[in-house]
Amino acid sequence: MPNELLSAAVALWAAAALVAVTGRGVVISRLLLASGVVAGIATALAALPHGTAAVALPTRLLGEAVGFRLAPDALWLMGFGLAPALFACGLGSPAPAGGAGWLFGAALSLIGALGVFGLDNAAAFLIAWELMSLGGAVMLLSENRSPASGRSVLFMLALLEIGGVALLLAFVLLATKAQSLSFGQFPQASAMLPAAVRVLSGVLLVLGFGAKLGLLPFYEWFPAAYSAGSGSSGALLSGPVLNAALFALGRALFAWAPAASGLGVFVVVLAVTSAVLSALYAFQQEDWRGLLAFSSAENAAIALATIGAGLIFRSDNLPALASLAWTVALLHMAAHALAKGCLFLTADGVFRASGRYRIVHTDLLRRTSPFFGIGALFAAMSLAAMPPQAGFVSEWYVFETVFQGFHLSSLGDRLVLALAGAGLALTAAVAFAAFVKLIGIGLLGRAAGRSPPPPPPGMVVAVGLLGLGVLALAVGMPFWLPSLDPAIAHRFGTAAVRAMHPDLLLVPLTPRFAFISPTLLAIVMPLLAVIPLAMIAAGRRFAVRRDAVWYGGRDHDPALVSTTALTFANALRTFYSFVYRPREETARETNGHSYFVRRLVFTHEVAPIFGPALFAPATRLVRLLADRLAVLQSGNLNFYLALIGALLVLILALIA
Questions:
Q1: Is 141 exposed, middle or buried (CB count within 10 Å of its CB: 0-12, 13-18, 19+)?
Q2: Are residues 592 and 527 part of one domain?
Q3: Any idea what DSSP says for residue 500?
Q4: Are 414 and 405 in contact (CB under 8 A)?
């Protein structure tokens, strides 16, 4: 039954792509796409906790059969990734240019993500990986065809291709030793490789998959590319696509990479540094999509830091703690997919209401259903790690995992995990401030002029349901966790997940270390709200005097005294100026006389770290080579004949 549902999902997505190509039947294509997502979610529900049966696809690549199977952990991540994708596909892109092209790209991305989750052949996997990237580019370009958008998407594709080349090299190293393209042969092949080559293959895998996950320096493509598209595109890219990439990397590192603490340390340091920088740059964004894009890179890096800790535990012969780390990574990405998809659709609601994605005062919550605001608030609370939401549970587990470093025998490994905990704490603090800014200014802030109209009802329902899903994931965590038991037992030889949920408590393997209960928190926290409500009710007996805020002796103007995204983030920008290197410019527009200023134009930005030092020199080198090789396109027939003659002489010389 699950495999039949998967076949139906692929058929529906392929049909949606074909209908979209014709340029007609956009509504039909959208229904087919959403129906395929429903079939994928139904597969996850039906096949958990044991996974789907292995099947051989009716094709061969490079002379080898291609198998397909969705493991329980793949189903877990796929199901939660498809939940926001369902609403994104059903609502479609709000961009005027979006439509058939967007639906075609979405179908390609979903088919590619499914292949990344389940294919066991290296050649087929790379095809699915590239299909996933191509689909994302098609989605973004179909929504915005401006030159700036085109440059952002090409920059994204260039960095993703660097990752693709790294994956190709890693697969070549493993497949050559295994004499097979089957992933099932890669663990034995990795064990037979020399130690240096095994470490090299592990680093290549991290860099290859990290290009999609947004590890440094690759995270710099995230804000511009995501901002070129809509929130619906962001929901797909940060949902099934990001989850597929993290699953593939986790499987590769735990199954194929060497059991060496050095690789784990490398992963932890890289991931924590990426998380800190992504959170810092997310806080400075003034566009919904840019902030959420950096946040996606940050959360993927947090999950990868947990995987790195698992590699260190595995190298020290602590399989129970290694299994805890992988389980926590799965929980974190599940919570992230729901919450981030909800906020990306909230961003589309802001766009439909105001016509832009800027984080400015919109007074939107007062103009729309409370269901919309509750959903967005729950999602933001989760990404800010506030109780009792799912993000609070997963990040609590992340900290408890790295705090288990005292079990390690090496002092260096213990110090790495201790410093990782400090870095993740900084990340959590900055992320909290970023989402306070997003909700406080982007939704709660009151507009000085006319308030925008409310978002469409479908958007309200989507945001509300996804927000409630975030809470349901947290409250029901003791009941959902058992579905991961078979996956963890298969990968690590231990069913450590069973020790993570005694009754309604959640513990990091042992209740003597720490515990929480989001289920009980969801019951107790509303009861605690009775206290302030009683105080408010009691205060109604006394008169309340309201006065305007003192504003330098001048009349109170909400438009002048309101907090903007820039002023909210300026203190941190100043404190971390050595990271941001902020630039500010003020230009005056006059009527020809410097004393009569018509308008002041203020611009500000923060400087990227890797763009000027890494990407700009590479771009200059490529352009220089292109200028030198332009002679090959001169159109001179004699030059072409000379080239053919030189090649002929070279061939004859090699034969001789």
A1: buried
A2: no
A3: G
A4: yes
Mean pLDDT, the chain cut into blocks of 10 residues (656 residues total): 89 93 84 94 91 88 89 94 94 80 94 95 94 94 88 92 94 92 90 87 93 92 93 94 96 83 91 96 94 96 96 91 93 96 94 88 82 94 93 94 91 94 95 94 76 82 95 91 82 74 83 85 85 76 69 64 82 87 82 74 82 80 81 75 86 78
* Angle 438-217-380 from CA coordinates, rounded to 5°: 20
| 534 and 599 within one domain | no
538, 573, 595 - which closes a domain: 538
Based on the domain organization, do 647 and 590 belong to the same domain?
yes
Are 127 and 238 contained in the same domain?
yes
**pLDDT score, position 566:** 84
Looking at residue 98, what is its pLDDT?
Answer: 65
Residue 427 per-residue DSSP state: H
Distance from C-alpha of 376 to C-alpha of 260, rounded to nearest angstrom: 42
Within the chain, how many helices (H) and strands (E) appear?
29, 4
Q: Which helix (H) or strand (E) holds 225?
A: helix 222-227
The amino acid at 163: G
Same domain, 232 and 339: no
Identify the residue whose tokens are 């005062």.
Answer: 361
The number of angstroms, rounded, from the C-alpha of 572 to the middle of its chain's C-alpha atoms is 24
Q: Is residue 529 part of a domain?
A: yes
379 and 445 assigned to the same domain: yes
Q: Is the residue at 186 inside a domain?
A: yes
DSSP per residue, 350-373: HHHHHSS-B-----HHHHS-HHHH
Look at the block and give the residue holding tokens 């990405």: 333
The residue type of 138 is V
Residues 477 and 596 in one domain: no
H-only helix segments in 146-194: 147-178, 186-192
The amino acid that residue 509 corresponds to is L
Handedness of CA 590, 591, 593, 596 (dihedral sign): negative
Chain centroid to Cα 124, Å, comes to 24
In angstroms, the CA 93 to CA 106 distance is 10
Structure tokens at 58: 């009716």
294 falls within a domain = no
Residue 462 is part of which domain span? 332-538
> Which of 459, 449, 448 has its CA nearest to residue 350?
459
Closest CA to 238 of 427, 441, 73, 383: 383
Question: What residues contact residue 287 under an 8 Å CB cut-off, 6+ apart?
Answer: 223, 227, 357, 358, 359
Lookup: tokens for 214? 């947004």
Distance CA 484, CA 324 (A): 11
Strand 597-605 relative to strand 583-590, pairing: antiparallel
Coil, strand or helix at 144: coil
pLDDT at 214: 92
**DSSP assignment string, 32-66:** HHHHHHHHHHHHHHHHTTT-PPPEEEEEEETTEEE
Residue 252 lies in a domain: no
**Residue 378: CA count within 13 A, CB half-sphere:** 27
For residue 145, the model assigns a pLDDT of 83
- Distance CA(4)–CA(39), nearest Å, equals 9
Tell me the CA distances in angstroms from 644 to 641, 654, 655, one per residue in order.
Answer: 5, 15, 17
Count how many domains the chain has.
3
* Structural tokens at position 346: 């909230």
Q: What is the pLDDT of residue 451?
A: 65
Same domain, 519 and 600: no
Place of tokens 């401006």: 146
**Residue among 144, 68, 133 at smallest CA distance from 101:** 144
Domain boundary among 246, 271, 289: 246
